[in-house]
Amino acid sequence: MNSLRETILAGELIEAHRPWPRAVVSRELWQRAAERLHAGEWALLGLWGEPEFAHLAVIERHTNECAVLSFACEQQRFPSIGRSHAPAIRLERALRDLVGLEPEGLADLRPWLDHGKWGTRHRLEQGAAVSAATHGYPFLPAAGDSLHQVPVGPVHAGIIEPGHFRFTASGETVVRLEERLGYAHRGIETLMAGAPLERAARLAGRLSGDSTVACALAFAQAVEAALAVQVPPRAVWVRALLAELERLANHLGDIGAICNDAAFGLMHAQCGLLREHTLRAAESCFGHRLMMDRVVPGGLGCDLPGDGEQLLVALVALVRSRFPELVELYDNTASLQDRTVGTGYLAPALAQQFACGGYVGRASGRNFDARCTPGYAPYDRLRFEVPVLEEGDVNARVWIRIREIEQSLSLIEEILPQVPPGAICAPVATQAATGIAREGMALTEGFRGDILAWLRIAADGKIERCHLRDPSWFQWPVLEAAIEGNILADFPLCNKSFNCSYAGHDL
Amino acid sequence: MAIVLDAVVQLGQLLVVLLLAPLLTGYVRMVKARLLRRQGPPLVQPYRDLLRLLRKEVVLAHSASWLFRVAPYLIFATTWVAAALVPTFAAGLVFSYAADMIAIVALLGSARFMLALAGLDVGTSFGGIGSSREMMIASLAEPAMLMVVFTLSLLAGSTQLSSIAVFMQGPVGLRVSLALALVGLVMVAIAENARIPIDNPATHLELTMVHEAMILEYSGRHLALIEAASYLKLLLYLSVIACVFVPWGIAVSGQGFAAYLIGLTLYLVKLSGGGLLLAVFETAIAKMRVFRVPDFLGAALMLGLLATLLLFVSRVA
Lengths: 507, 317
Hints:
heterodimer; A: 507 residues; Beta Polymerase, domain 2; Cytochrome-c3 Hydrogenase, chain B; 2 domains; five-stranded mixed sheet; four-stranded mixed sheet; 18 helices; globular; B: 317 residues; mainly alpha; two-stranded parallel sheet; 2 strands; 71% helix
């Protein structure tokens, strides 16, 4: 009984869960799932919980099948997955903070999202007891001669999101980095519980501002899966347009920002210009620079206007004409290459183990893109390549972004003539209150990587529980590994090349 | 009478460097912004920054000692004196006998020593990192600078900048040693002024800072003084390069008012040329890894050494 399908069949299947199966499994099957994850046959997609259940979303590597395994907790305890599969550790610590489920056998029981400021023990349950996490946070020790610690953040000298980094260094060389996140916690999952669909969709779009389209899309697809809503074809195609525009804008911004961290302002200025053009085109077409709240359950919040196609064609032509020069500049500036090549190496094995999505995984040989596997419309009818490199350094992560920009440009060109006429939104609210609880999940590809959305819609049509897992959950931990052995002054460059989301991770 | 005039000119020189220094930094920033197709802050922004900082109250860390409070004044004073000693538009001033290149190097060294101590004083990790990096850079930049000084003094027969400037105005001819010394001096100037590729004066990334890391804890008038000192330092290095390698137009004592005016005008032209080159260079290059800095300054040291050796060889021949 090794395959995912067999495991699901051996469990108690939940009928209302779509599109992939969910089954309540026994302790034995749950522990075997941990073994499969440890062996690398399955990859972890997410781990979250409710007061009664711990849920584990996995994808089987060779069949690309997804499923959710649920474990019925006794006395709020479940066998830890993180004990044998490290990527789950932070998810379990967060689950412990939010819901209060105890992972049995997890060595690291320090609070993760809970900084002792909530005034309540478990955020989602709104328990009465005050948080236990009021006293200091013990960082993991590092032993050795003449080591010194450098605390950085959570307030940084630049205008960036809050996060604390504790470096242990030997001179300039980083011996260990430990992250402390959770400063941007807004309680999105708590706010989601009991929210009507419309409000929940807006919340999902605010998980992480730079990937608002991808987050909203994941949420919308999960709702549509749960309610079996058929999205109008026009909405499907325009959604892909929004997603590619978002990817384009973010990758352009990232490439410039990475170069700027090596004090090469020229690339920053030029890429910033192209990003600005992209955002303005988005505003002209969809009325919002970041296209927030444009993807809603059932379809779209706004249509592509008549002159939209023309605007986007002009944008693609503009980027096409200017971007190759910038790539050449990047590639031919020896002083810049000296900084990026070989810096912040992420081993392919680690990228595989943590199932890192997006450019982080693809620069380290992990060929995974949620647009292809498990895949969603309309990408099954579009031709595009997923670039993969093996080098795993900052340079490789820049090159993946360069290649993805090229792919996004051709995708926009490919999508535009195919956008069919018709309605842009199917009614959802009326179907939501069905009298029975329904569950849905979705996996979409944001610019950072795959975003998981799982939700249950209660009988009255409101969201009962919604979990959104940002790709950064599996990228932050490997950043700690990638920086080891590098020098302190290279951390900003490395960090920017990962560009993990603080807000998306902290929920 | 001549002495009185010289004293007045010397006083003018003191004021000129102080007043021009923020303008030079503003100018370099503006050119850099324009090269990046940005509008950039106005030329007078550094003056406004200084005024704003002077008006603000000083926030002191609990762990700051008297050293931390005294250091800014000492840093500013030594840098200002050093900058005032360099012949900018006129040579042969009252203080010329003191305008010795080794004295200038020593003054700047003292300022750096104070700054590094201040960086360590508060006890934050960034201050420590900045001080240690600064000392690493200084330990390589100072010997390189001294080799350049030796080359020039061997040629001109003096370590006094005034004499060197007058000597260089005469028929020197093309010399390989001078070219090597110029490149060496420029490299030292870039390192000493915390410019790209050694350090990034505009960065907000704490972990990559050198100069900025040491002054992170400073605020108010203390910060204003340190900022003013770093403006002065940039002006000083550009002035030294201009005075030694493009000495034309520097007025000599007793040439009259018109000569001073011409000298001043040409000085401004030289500064703007130097600032332009600096901005272009900084735009075209990325910052190097901290551990590449020894290679960079090692090259400057070798150039200085080579320049001195070549002089000896050519003399023997």
